[in-house]
């Protein structure tokens, strides 16, 4: 079984988004979001090359990839590193945010 390691920033991103959905929509939607994110990252852990490369000037983020969350939450992007055992989840961010500023990366292509 592929292994998923979540960095603290990714855990915070998931919690913040769950809270936002719980407060602004419903707990059911918040739970659906977490399930979709977990399912997507588990799937990508078995196929880590599926995501698109992220181009960054930061040496600590070289080799990072991104893939949208599935099941209706495609505006959210999972940023991760492939590892020999699976993936390391770095961040979970809405694609409408200023990703270039947050991660010092090239803006995603449309």
Could you characterize the architecture of this molecule?
The protein has one domain (3-103): YaeB-like fold (2-Layer Sandwich). The protein is of the alpha+beta class and 110 residues long. The N and C termini lie far apart (33 Å). The mean pLDDT is 92. It has a 5-stranded mixed sheet with strand order 1-5-4-3-2. The protein has helices at 8-24, 27-46, 99-103, and strands at residues 3-6, 52-53, 65-68, 76-83, 86-94. It is built from 3 helices and 5 strands, in the order βααββββα. Helix 1 packs antiparallel against helix 2.
List how many beta strands DSSP finds. Answer: 5
Strand order in the largest sheet: 1-5-4-3-2
CATH superfamily: RelE-like
- Into which percent range does the helicity of residues fall? 25-40%
| Low-pLDDT runs | none
| Helix-strand sequence | EHHEEEEH
Strand-helix topology:
Layout: E1 3-6, H1 8-24, H2 27-46, E2 52-53, E3 65-68, E4 76-83, E5 86-94, H3 99-103
Parallel strand pairs: 1-5
Antiparallel strand pairs: 2-3, 3-4, 4-5
Helix pairs in contact: 1-2
